[in-house]
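About this split. The held-out portion is used to measure sequence recovery: a designer receives only the structure tokens and must propose an amino acid at every position. Recovery is the fraction of positions where the proposal matches the reference. Here is one held-out target exactly as it appears in the evaluation file.
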């Protein structure tokens, strides 16, 4: 059984990876994400995820042999504008106002490296997300919770009270920050057998249809 070395300290990504039924160790990558830029955001998230994964491989000398490094990155794109994590509450406010009632893209890139063989696989999951017409008062209340500050686009699709999303075409967990379905597919490419609890994965998608999940469970 492989151990997953998660190159992220995101509690959301850890919860999602744990749905695979494999041992998980959290090894955050210390990298400068701002040093990476690509004109295509779908390529950019892959480049940042690769930077994180390779940093773990190169900076840590104690990698368990029977392990894989998993790194991910998420970017929100609205009309060509890249929305990362807000620097402050004012920036979160402007992001949420700009997203209100609009459709945007969420790109989540993933890179996986087999610690023993060095074999690398990667992929990007892209979803179209349409926000509901929430009010300024709802924005203020959501920002007051502190939840937007560590999230691309300043929102969490899964937030239980704000619930900002009206419609989704794509992968719910991908918008959360790590597509469980794509992770299963990429691990299979490396020959890694998972014990994924697909009933829990379906629940994690909160009834939003996901074509890849449908394929995996059919």
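Reference sequence for scoring:
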């Amino acid at each position: 059984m492989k151990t997953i070395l998660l190159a992220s300290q995101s509690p959301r990504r850890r919860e999602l990876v744990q749905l695979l039924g494999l041992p998980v160790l959290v090894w955050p990558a210390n990298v400068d994400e701002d040093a990476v830029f690509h004109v295509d955001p779908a390529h950019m998230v892959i480049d940042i995820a690769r930077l994180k994964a390779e940093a773990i491989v190169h900076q840590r000398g104690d990698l368990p042999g029977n392990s894989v490094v998993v790194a991910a990155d998420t970017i929100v794109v609205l009309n060509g504008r890249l929305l990362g994590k807000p620097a402050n509450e004012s920036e979160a406010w402007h992001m949420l106002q700009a997203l209100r009632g609009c459709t945007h893209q969420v790109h989540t890139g993933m890179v996986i490296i087999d610690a023993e063989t060095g074999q690398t696989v990667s992929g990007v999951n892209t979803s179209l997300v349409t926000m509901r017409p929430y009010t300024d008062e709802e924005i203020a209340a959501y920002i007051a919770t502190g939840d937007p500050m560590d999230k691309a686009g300043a929102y969490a699709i899964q937030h239980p009270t704000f619930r900002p999303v009206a419609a989704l075409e794509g992968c719910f967990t991908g918008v959360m920050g790590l597509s469980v379905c794509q992770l299963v597919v990429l691990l299979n490419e490396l020959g890694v057998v998972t014990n994924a609890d697909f009933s829990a994965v379906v629940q994690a998608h909160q009834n939003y249809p996901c074509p890849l999940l449908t394929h995996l469970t059919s």
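Annotator remark: The CA atoms of residues 101 and 133 lie 5 Å apart.
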